[in-house]
Known about the structure:
By secondary structure, this protein is α/β, with parallel strands linked by helices. The protein folds into two domains: 8-210, Class I glutamine amidotransferase (GATase) domain (Rossmann fold, 3-Layer(aba) Sandwich); 214-336, Homeodomain-like (Arc Repressor Mutant, subunit A), CATH 1.10.10.60. It contains 15 helices and eleven strands. The strands form three sheets. The chain has a seven-stranded mixed sheet, sandwiched between helices. The protein has a two-stranded antiparallel ribbon with strand order 3-4. Strands 8-9 form a two-stranded parallel sheet. Helix 6 (173-186) runs antiparallel to helix 7. The protein is globular, with a radius of gyration of 23 Å.
Amino acid sequence: MDTTAQPHRIVLVAFDNAQMLDVTGPMDAFSEANTACEANGRPPAYAITFAGPRVGPVSTSSGLELNARTSFYDETLAPDTLVVCGGRGARLSADDADAVAAIARLANKASRVVSICTGAFVLAAGGLLDGRRITTHWKYCDVIARRFPRIDVDADAIFIHDGKFYTSAGVTAGIDVALALIEHDLGRPVALEVARELVVFLRRPGGQSQFSAHMAADVRAADPDRFAELTRWMSEHLADDLSVERLAARVSMSPRNFARRFAEALGTPPGKFVQALRIDAARRLLTDGDVPLSTIARKCGFNSLETMRLSFQRHLKVAPQDFRARFQSRSSVAQTADSVCA
Length: 342
């Protein structure tokens, strides 16, 4: 970016019932970049505008209101980068033809278009994401994929860049994508300075599935109650043999018929479901106590600690010990410290 030219115009748009951090997270990152520029004797890199459905208050899901000084229906708006923020209001606005058309007009003017969380629904409703690889909050990946079958949804990515479009996962992922844009525009040192000021990773390790309830597969289930008794039993016997043959025998079905019926009802094959159960149980043990990793692997039905490590890397993009370091509860950490000092 030529910082001697006019500031790069960023327009963030939000709808009533917005997720506030979708707006304020990226806005603070871009604002801190301006502060970093000024501290280094450079002019502010960004001119930041917040636009709502009207001039005035925009409600958020937390109950606070944000003040929009302009409306995204204003046809004089000319963003260089358009940021479409998410929340319940964005999902509902995907059914508002006027709002979708207004956002599409702004997107066509912009050289770069960003969606935060479920802001992707509005872009998808305008056909702007057709044929592109995108992401959104893990909870809504299946929803957006079903509603807009022409887009390719990656449920694990923190953010994705495809053409001039950047789509990001839920809430704080808006900061991740903003930092990536700042690094592209102003260089790594400025991006690092902003990340340090915000006390966040410049590049977050792993994908968003490490933050989700791993059994979000339930969202895809067509008939989750069909094997409810079996799946409850499975979750209580993770260290047992949970092969298709043993599970089929437990419900008096042939292995082939069981595998087919289970996948139809739960939206995932039995083997993958078992793997998800084991990873989810391991996640809880890693965050709620100080059980040795080898013991967790055994309790959760992994053949070895190495098998658990490979499963975490494959599905969560993070090693078990790193997951524990990142998410272990304060009480667990305190108990560990007490035991060390005793």
